[in-house]
Design goal:
There is one protein chain. β1 and β2 form a beta hairpin. Helices cover about 60% and strands about 5% of the residues. Strands 3-5-4 form a three-stranded mixed sheet. The chain has a two-stranded antiparallel sheet with strand order 1-2. About 40% of the residues are buried. The chain contains 21 helices and five strands. Bound molecules: zinc ion (ZN). The site of zinc ion has 4 residues, from α12 and α14.
Length: about 500
């Protein structure tokens, strides 16, 4: 197989697929026509292409540039192959999910919008009813398809010659999942005792209940935090983003590659996203503002992805511009998103002098996320281990136990498959959170607490961004500070060490 021809085809595929995704989910094109795109690039996702990439990679010097690029292509090919093999099931799941209705107390709510309705619902018992009804539907209407999907993924992995799905992901993504599990489990053990003290006062302040009364169904409301909306006025949303980037020497309005889409459109997805159609030449940031704190966090998050992709060196090979370790781009996204928890930024951009409660709430939310993802990784490693012969019942019980223990509340069993992201994306998030904490500390030490107002900090970021995703998160940190990627910094950042 000619690898250079493969690269050219892969880049054309990525551009076409991302453009189709952008047009459909921005509400600019009704049909989502991805079949013809896959059809034009059939040769990319065959078992033969995967075998050939593995063979060619085996013949390279481990760690050299060619070996690295072939590994990224292999990751791309495997993901596309599994995607091809499961696309009919995925489409059927999406079709059913879009048609489902949750019935709660004489109300009918779309399955997909039910979590938004739940977040906006002030009555805790109604929230619990919405969630119970949605979970029942997840099991009764989607459960069979979810199980088929997982079995299909595992069968394909075996057919490609890997011992397990975990083994395959660890190899093609070059992540030591077992070591990451060990490190992150230590984070959960070390933050266990302080967790109630971080969460309790915030649950009391925002939901008006004791921690002992907190249910799984209250978490979306806790994250929504409507009482904070007043501090994040809609007319400051875009200006605060533009000013932040200007402080770093980036005039977003003047970047020909960056396209902001904040308009309302009937069929526009409520979920914000960044679509890197061309890296670095054409990047779309799509968001439908709904008001409040979330809009600011989401715009900054997607803005971090957007600036990363728009600043990649155009001379880099395809793999480093489009593929590689997603913990890298997620770290830049979180670096900006976390500005809404930064007292300097809140004061300078939004005029908030007393950010005490915002910081306490942000800290509790972040700790919930990290602890949940640590438990998710532990669970997914069991789910995707070599044939374990465990029953669905056993796995769903294990899922509820691991996440419930991490969050110290009762967790439902029904979402044990729906809650799983493909390709161990949970590992990308966990490593991104650790990398972002290191990166933010580096920027603060180098440029001061208002690092986002220093052009030199922008110069440093542009140097990192130019590299695309050539390096993994661990390698990038090693080059930057000589330090190892570890989770002790997260404990420290969340104020969980010492007295
Ligand atoms: Zn992201």
């Amino acid at each position: 197989m000619d690898v250079n021809a493969y690269r050219l085809s892969a880049e054309a595929f990525m551009t076409d697929l991302t453009r189709e995704y952008y047009l459909h989910y921005a509400g600019l094109k009704e049909a989502y026509e991805i079949e013809p795109i896959y059809g034009r690039h059939e040769e990319l996702f065959t078992a033969q292409a995967i075998d050939s990439l593995r063979e060619q990679r085996a013949a390279t010097e481990p760690g050299n540039d060619e070996s690295r690029r072939l590994r990224m292509l292999l990751d791309f090919a495997v993901e596309g192959y599994l995607g091809q093999e499961t696309k009919a099931l995925e489409a059927e799941l999406a079709r059913r999910e879009a048609a489902l209705t949750v019935h709660v107390r004489d109300r009918r709510i779309g399955f997909r919008e039910s979590s938004v309705v739940q977040a906006n619902e002030p009555d805790a018992d109604v929230r619990a009813d919405i969630e119970w009804a949605r979970n029942e539907l997840t099991e009764s209407e989607l459960g069979t398809l979810d199980r088929e999907l997982l079995e299909r993924q595992h069968r394909c992995t075996a057919a490609l010659g890997w011992g397990s799905y975990s083994e395959m992901c660890a190899e093609v993504k070059s992540i030591d999942l077992a070591a990451l599990h060990f490190q992150t489990a230590a984070f959960n053990a070390d933050s266990e005792a302080r967790f109630p003290a971080v969460l309790g006062p915030e649950v009391q302040r925002t939901l008006g209940i004791d921690l002992a009364q907190l249910r799984r169904s209250d978490l979306v409301r806790f994250f929504r935090a409507p009482e904070e909306d007043g501090q994040f006025p809609a007319d400051r949303l875009v200006p605060s983003f533009m000013e932040t980037m200007l402080g770093l020497g980036i005039d977003v309005a003047d970047q020909s590659a960056v396209h902001l889409d904040l308009d309302s459109r009937p069929n526009k997805s409520p979920r914000a996203f960044c679509a890197p159609v061309g890296v670095p030449g054409e990047v779309h940031l799509v968001l439908t503002p709904v008001g409040g704190r979330d809009d600011f966090g989401v715009l900054l998050h997607e803005g971090g992805h957007t600036e990363h992709f728009a600043n990649v060196d155009p001379k880099l090979p395809f793999e480093y511009r489009y593929l590689g370790d997603n913990a890298i781009t997620e770290a830049y996204a979180f670096l900006f998103e976390h500005l809404i928890e930064d007292p300097e930024w809140l004061r300078r951009r939004l005029g908030i002098e007393d950010a005490g409660s915002l910081l306490a709430h942000g800290r509790a939310q972040r700790l919930i996320y990290v602890r949940r993802y640590v438990a998710k990784l532990a669970y997914e490693l069991e789910l995707h281990a070599a044939p374990h012969g465990r029953s669905w019942d056993d796995l769903s019980a294990r899922y509820a136990q691991l996440i419930g223990d991490a969050l110290q509340l009762e967790w439902p069993r029904q979402t044990f498959l729906a809650d799983v992201d493909p390709g161990f994306y949970c590992a990308a998030y966990l490593r991104a959170w650790a990398l972002e904490t290191h990166l933010r500390a580096y920027l603060r030490e180098s440029f001061g607490p208002a690092w986002f107002e220093h052009r030199e900090a922008g110069d440093a970021l542009r140097r990192f961004w130019a590299e695309g995703q050539r390096l993994g998160a661990e390698e990038m940190l090693d080059e930057l500070t000589g330090r190892r990627l570890e989770f002790g910094v997260l404990l420290e950042d969340l104020g969980l060490v010492g007295t």
